[in-house]
Write the structure tokens for this entry.
Amino acid sequence: MQRYKTLLPILLLSFPLMGVYLACMAPGLAWAHFGADGGDLITAAATGGVAHPSGYPTYLLLARLFQSLPFGVLAYRTNLLSALAMTAASVFIYALVSRRLPGDNPFFIHLSGLAAGFAFGLAPLAWSQAVITEVYALHNLFVAILLYLCFGGNRSEPAARHPDWLIGLTFGLGLGNHSTLFLLFPIVFAVSFQHWRARTRSISLRLWGLIAGLMIYLVLPVRALSAAPVNWGNAATLDGFLWLISGQLYHGQFFALSGGDLLERVSALAALLWGQFGLIGLLFGLYGAFNGRLSDSLQRSLAWIVFASTALALGYATSDSFLYFLPAILCFSIWIGAGLHGLMAGISSRWMRVARLTGLSFFVILFIQAGMNWPQVDASADMRAEKFGEQVLSTVPADALLFAEGDQAIFALWYFHFSLGQRPDLAIVAADLLHFPWYLESLQNAYPELKIPGPYPFAQTLAVANPDRPTCTVRYDRWTQLYCQPAIGSGE
């Protein structure tokens, strides 16, 4: 009976969340919620290739597993990984909160844990990443798992009683999904110990587990050797491997904002936080951050993640950098659970029924907000990428050289051409990557008959070198922009 009582809250959390995600999930390849990288990730997983830096080996292996499911189109099957990962992250949040809260009232404890899980799972930013192909749902699952492994013991225990090697291994595998998980290094190797200087054996075991988990990056050179059509960096070479996993391509975007842009981002992140939880959620979260319901070590860890994630979201000069704020939203959800528990516990000393009604009322507010947020996160009708691929591939002439510009166009065409095998007569060229030697090598492997003048050809020089092929240029900027010319050798 006790097992069923433990399982029931998990079912009450996971089934509704998964149902909501499935109802809002993109039916195929989607550009919703800054999901342009989806085409690259799906294609790299499906063809045995390597995705854009930092390679994401953990994600690619799991995505390939989901792509083996016997239903739905390839993109939909890959989208399912995000939905399951975000649901699991919410479950681990529930488990952490319900195990760390003080008191002996199981109703209050489980209700607070569910509040934290639903607050995160239904936060619009988390919800948006659960319905498309991207790495952020899995990234936040690893954040939640590590917090649970480090702190998910009973309140009377200084930390969780989970094997240190498992904590390190999880950390390493999580870094194989997204390198920004490194922000949790102080938590894994310091803060989660009550007397960390005396725990040299535990630290050693976690370090060995970390090294074992990081071995997943060796998957990238192996995949690179297969000469797949998507092979960023050619990780089969040492220089290419280091270029890929270090994210050298993006180094110039770190902390490159002006003072004015930074102030705008601070305002935007504040508005983003408000949009996740509303006034009531913010008040509960702020109360939970300071009411002492959680242990000092866990509170320090949550505060660090919020600080580090916020700094990264503010300083990374890309249009989707706000997605790095997701771990901070995860931590704030935990504080919401602690805040609700503190309020119910305080009220219950005089009015038990009022305390229970307060807890249940929070869910009413939460679900009303979710209903209001539904239209903005619903990706079930986002067919832009699918229509783009259909339009372009049905329009370009036979045997054309198709130069794609911009991530949306390039990655979408890779998906339809390489993953689904559509229009094998075409040679799809990512114009933005022609200055990389590794891309020219991948291009030659994908199209052995294509003449590629070196060392750094432009689109025009490629067209001249292949005079029997018509040439087309395509990009997507709110609408499809496609221009075609007849083959140079045709004389037209």
